[in-house]
Amino acid sequence: MKLQGRVALVTGGGRGIGRAIALALAREGAAVAVAARSADQVEETVRLLTPPAVGIVADVRKPDDVRRMAERAVAGLGPIDILVNNAGVARFASVLEATVEDWRLMFDVNLIGPLLCTQAVLPSMLERKRGWIINVSSNAGVKGYPNQSGYCASKHGLLGFAKALALETRDSGVRVHSICPGGVDTDMAGQNPSFGDRAELMKPEEIADAVVFLAAQDGLMMIDNIVMRRYKATPWP
Fold first, then answer.
1. Residue 237 lies in a domain
2. In the chain, which residue ranges form alpha helices assigned H by DSSP?
3. At what angle do helices 16-27 and 39-48 cross, to 10 degrees?
4. Going by C-beta distance under 8 Å and a sequence separation of 6 or more, which residues neighbour residue 176?
5. Is 233 part of any domain?
6. In-domain check, residue 151
7. pLDDT for position 195
8. Which letter, b or e, does each residue of 46-56 get, where b requires 16 or more Cβ atoms within 10 Å of its Cβ?
9. Distances, alpha carbon 49 to alpha carbons 20, 28, 59, 157, 205, in Å
């Protein structure tokens, strides 16, 4: 098993990509803490995991929730080796119809959340000189899409955050990665009117495989960002 003996914390792990990531990490031997806002979804994911596993109800927008989340994960499983900043939301509207409330929600979850989660686990990683921080961004983090201005802005911001964090930690033993998937068959995709045939969308398990690949890297080779697209989407955008 590639991740035997490591502890992972996955945000947004109650469903979709986050659940697939949690399951994939556990299959490779990691002890996994799953965090999400819905208690029912967290409990369902934990039931699917190979023990040891911990489920935590938390909102990544709230500093107190994030602090408690990290403390419970460490108390239940040990120091966190792998942080997957996966929690995310999207609201779809043209620029003229976009609301400040929707933009604030997306920035709070998609950008402030990863900051708070990283701040909660990074000191221990630096002390141990070992850690993996994997940020799940989006194709919307590397290009623009109509009716997704706020989502694009927040995901571009997440990549900028990851770039700065990688520079700050590059001599510490902490590895910072990003993944930019586009068109994944999740509930969020179902809310996007631009997606047609959902049979052409990537599966959450494909994104989870990429997370496992990054979490298993421990040599001199470093991958900063993986951009993943639907097979039928335009190549080399």
1. no
2. 16-27, 39-48, 63-77, 100-107, 113-128, 149-169, 187-190, 204-215
3. 30
4. 133, 135, 162, 165, 166, 169, 224
5. no
6. yes
7. 60
8. beebeeebbbb
9. 10, 11, 21, 32, 15
Work out the angle at residue 114's Cα, subtended by the Cα atoms of residues 44 and 168, and round it to the nearest 5 degrees: 140
C-alpha triplet 103, 66, 122: angle, nearest 5°: 105
The tokens describing 56, both together, are 């935590």
Where residue 159 falls among pLDDT bands split at 50, 70, 90? very high
Query: Does residue 81 have a pLDDT over 70?
Result: yes
- Chain segment 177-211, per-residue pLDDT in tens: 999 999 999 877 666 666 666 788 999 999 999 99
Tokens of 153: 């802005």
* Predicted local confidence at residue 192, as pLDDT: 65
Domain holding 63, by residue range, is 7-228
CA 170 centroid distance within chain: 20
Which of the pair, 13 or 197, is modelled with greater confidence?
A: 13
CATH code for the domain of 141: 3.40.50.720
Q: Give the H or E element holding residue 178.
A: strand 174-181
Q: Is 151 a catalytic residue?
A: yes
Q: Which of 42, 151, 162, 201 is catalytic?
A: 151
10 Å CB burial of residue 68 (0-12, 13-18, 19+) is: middle
d(CA 166, CA 38): 31
In-domain check, residue 1: no
